[in-house]
Amino acid sequence: MGNTTMSLYRNSAWFLKGMTEFTRSAFLSAAKHFVEKDLEVSMAGRVFMITGANSGIGRATAMAIAKRGGTVHMVCRNKDKAEEARADIVKESGNKEIYVHILDLSETRKVWEFAEAFKRKYKALNLLINNAGCIMSERDVNAEGLEKSFASNVMGVYILTRGLIPLLEKSAEPRVITVSSGGMLVQKLRTGNLQTEIGRYDGTMVYAQHKRQQVVMTEQWAQTHSNIHFSVMHPGWVDTPVVAVANAMPDFHQSMKDSLRTPEQGADTVVWLAISEAAATKPSGSFFQDRRMVSAHLPLAWTHSSQLEQQKFMSVMEDLAKTFQPH
Ligand SMILES: NC(=O)c1ccc[n+]([C@@H]2O[C@H](COP(=O)([O-])OP(=O)(O)OC[C@H]3O[C@@H](n4cnc5c(N)ncnc54)[C@H](OP(=O)(O)O)[C@@H]3O)[C@@H](O)[C@H]2O)c1
């Protein structure tokens, strides 16, 4: 297949998959096979960190965990929004072990500082949920000169996870869950042009590439840190601000708004991955959708990358991350 035919095939296959698997009705039909008991567990004594916990999927996840007695560290960039969400979660769950930390994941040096300070202050972290994510409509750079979508969605996740791995490894039955997106199915890992300096800036495609990079990071971490259970997932198409207000996707939200999932439906697999015993029996590094392990590639798609390409990406990330590490 030529490049244009391939990309047409890939985009149509993706949209067809989305219409049959990512909508609210697809969730309801998948939910008929869910095992209700999987989520009937107490999380008392377990410590969770959730990024972007003030809104959408992250907030619904925080609420579900709070209701089961878990301690939740909400990592958010906006103090007012975070405190408001915290107050709602405490009120509705009756759980007071909910803490707010202010961090903008696009500020690379601050992510390092935050991870180091958290590790010094707290004795345990059982779960890290990398949920925060953003779509940029225009190319912009942070104080370190990194493109902001990359800084938030990739470098922020890399540094936070890498920085907290020693604490996770000291804690009981640690897990790391990253909320990726089905959008990554149309992207093959690219290690060149990490800062999108070359070519036109298409915010949706840049985001999709970053979501592919999250899948690769998860697969690689699973290989190098065998005592932590890693997973990465797609929540489906969910009615949240990231979709509604993203200038990059106004048409998508307008045309799909009646078929989008609720934040709770979008959070269902995150919660299942975070608390169920069933999830821990699945191989570490897997990709999930509606509580099922699924392929991270479309049939026939040329999105697979070799072990060597993936390792090269991780080594580029490590070198770049280290240049911003506090001494
Ligand atoms: N909604 C969907 O259809 C869909 C589909 C596939 C994947 N996802 C993924 O699901 C995850 C959660 O998104 P959502 O749908 O729940 O949207 P949302 O309600 O807009 O939540 C996104 C969260 O990320 C936070 N965030 C964004 N950039 C940040 C930064 N630089 N530093 C710290 N926090 C930041 C936001 O903070 P503010 O509230 O301050 O903006 C918000 O709390 C994202 O990773 C998204 O890519 C969503």
What would the average pLDDT be, to the nearest integer?
A: 94
Provide the low-confidence segments as ranges.
Answer: none
Give, in spatial order, the strands making up the sheet with the most strands.
3-2-1-4-5-6-7-8
How do the helices and strands follow one another from N- to C-terminus? HHEHEHEHEHEHEHHHHEEH
Q: Which fold does the CATH topology refer to?
A: Rossmann fold
Radius of gyration: 19 Å
The largest sheet is:
8 strands, mixed
Strand content: 5-15%
Distance between the termini: 50 Å
Give the cofactors and ligands. NADP nicotinamide-adenine-dinucleotide phosphate
Structural class: alpha/beta
Tally of individual domains: 1
| CATH C-level name | Alpha Beta
User: Total strand count, please?
Assistant: 8
Q: What is the H level of CATH, i.e. the homologous superfamily?
A: NAD(P)-binding Rossmann-like Domain
Helix content range: 40-55%
What would CATH call the architecture? 3-Layer(aba) Sandwich
**Oligomeric state:** single chain
Q: How would you sum up the global shape?
A: globular
List the total number of helices. Answer: 12
Descriptive notes:
This protein has 327 residues and is of the alpha/beta class. It has twelve helices and eight strands. The protein has one domain (3-322): Rossmann fold (3-Layer(aba) Sandwich), CATH 3.40.50.720. Helices cover 48% and strands 11% of the residues. Helix 4 links the parallel strand 2 and strand 3 (98-102). The model has no long low-confidence stretch (mean pLDDT 94). NADP nicotinamide-adenine-dinucleotide phosphate binds next to helix 3 and helix 8. InterPro entries: NAD(P)-bd_dom_sf (IPR036291), SDR_fam (IPR002347), SDR_member_12 (IPR052992). This is Flj13639. Pfam families: adh_short.
